[in-house]
Design brief:
This protein is an all-alpha fold and 365 residues long. It contains 19 helices and no strands. It has 3 domains: 1-138, Tetratricopeptide repeat domain (Serine Threonine Protein Phosphatase 5, Tetratricopeptide repeat), CATH 1.25.40.10; 208-275, Serine Threonine Protein Phosphatase 5, Tetratricopeptide repeat, CATH 1.25.40.10; 296-365, Serine Threonine Protein Phosphatase 5, Tetratricopeptide repeat, CATH 1.25.40. 76% of the residues lie in helices and 0% in strands.
């Protein structure tokens, strides 16, 4: 009878796997329970699926029955982990994957999925530990090196991130996400020249890769090449004209190139797309300040602070604008408020101390 039950489990297991693969194909997803790059598309059995909650319960029941019949079935525990992970229920998923490893310490995929879960939980140190174990047992897994590189980057271990991302690309030289991340890792190391090549390669492989265009534009801007940055941002906007963030960084490039009217009009386009984003008003205020239109800069900062009173940069730009029109008490107050929110803000501290000392000197005279 027990043999028959185990045989039934084998057939049921095949059915579950077929069901999962069908869901993946229908939804265009790779056969991994999670995409760290797009965690919002995490569940592939949702309320919209025709299978519904009853199907979910049936799948879990089959898995649990298999474990009851044979508590050493690593494949059953592995499916249990994936079942819970697909539904963002990480606590039982972690326990199931750890049980797989207890039963078989060389089960590489369990380490991989634990790394993914801990990454999504922002526990990058644990993510690193499990991704490192994965690549020991599966040294040809390009994705594992990629995710390990991302976790290193999150932990500000930038040189280690570069090493892992280069290994990922060595295994799969068409891994565009790894190329993008390698470019960002070089930027984190302030090696802007080295960042250009992987980003350009990512764009070559995927001509509609907006994130790579914006990253490349940022690199050119950091190199002081505002003209080339503006052109790259223009291409990004052509691909994604509804993204206010791209307009905002393009406006920053216009400011760097001293094209203030273009910066202002670009900020206004961004605000049309996202009128409640206080940071965009800060960018507009910065453009107005650069144009020496200090009253309009103050008005933009007021709009930003109405939306979010804790926007540090809005207080700083307001302080700069007040200082420019010789309203030193208000400038001092703006810098003071900025420091109350962020005591480590270098520019606010520098300007606050300067004005404070000037005021004390005037009082003593």
């Amino acid at each position: 009878m027990e043999n028959f039950a185990l045989m039934f489990f084998e057939f049921a297991l095949l059915g579950i796997i077929a069901f999962m693969i069908t869901e993946i194909v229908l939804q265009g997803r790779r056969p991994s329970f999670v995409s760290i790059d797009n965690a919002s598309q995490f569940n592939f059995i949702s309320q919209e699926n025709t299978s519904g909650e009853n199907e979910d319960e049936n799948i879990l029941q089959v898995i649990e029955q298999a474990i009851m019949l044979d508590s050493n079935r690593t494949d059953a525990y592995f499916l249990k982990g994936k079942f819970y992970a697909m539904r963002n229920d990480f606590t039982p998923a972690i326990e199931a994957f750890k049980q797989v490893i207890r039963l078989d310490p060389h089960y590489s995929a369990a380490y991989y999925h634990l790394g993914e879960i801990y990454f999504l939980q922002n526990d990058y140190q644990k993510a690193i530990e499990y991704f490192e174990s994965n690549v020991v047992f599966d040294p040809t897994n390009s994705d594992a090196y990629y995710h390990l590189g991302k976790a290193y980057l999150k932990n500000e271990l930038n040189k280690s991130a570069i090493e892992m991302l280069e290994k990922s690309i060595l295994i799969n030289n068409k891994h565009v996400e790894a190329l993008l991340m390698l470019g960002l890792a070089f930027v984190a190391c302030q090696d802007y020249q080295s960042a250009v090549k992987p980003l350009e390669e990512a764009i070559k492989l995927k001509p509609d890769y907006v994130e790579a265009y914006t990253a490349l534009g940022n690199v050119f801007l950091l190199q002081g090449n505002a003209v080339q940055a503006i052109e790259i941002y223009r291409q990004a906007i052509h691909l994604d004209g509804n993204n206010p963030d791209i307009y905002a960084i393009q406006a920053n490039a216009y400011i760097a190139d001293e094209r203030y009217e273009s910066a202002i009009s670009t900020c206004r386009k961004a605000l049309e797309l996202s009128p409640n984003d206080g940071k965009l008003y800060v960018m507009l205020g910065n453009a107005m300040f650069a144009k020496k239109d200090y009253i309009e800069a103050l008005h933009a900062c007021e709009m930003a602070l109405e939306l979010n009173p804790r926007l540090v940069e809005a207080h700083v730009v307001a302080g700069n604008s007040y200082y420019a029109i010789h309203n030193f008490p208000q400038a001092l107050e703006s810098y003071k408020r900025a420091l109350e929110i962020d005591p480590r803000h270098v520019l606010a501290e520098k300007h606050f101390l300067y004005l404070h000392n000037e005021q004390q000197q005037e009082d003593s005279d």
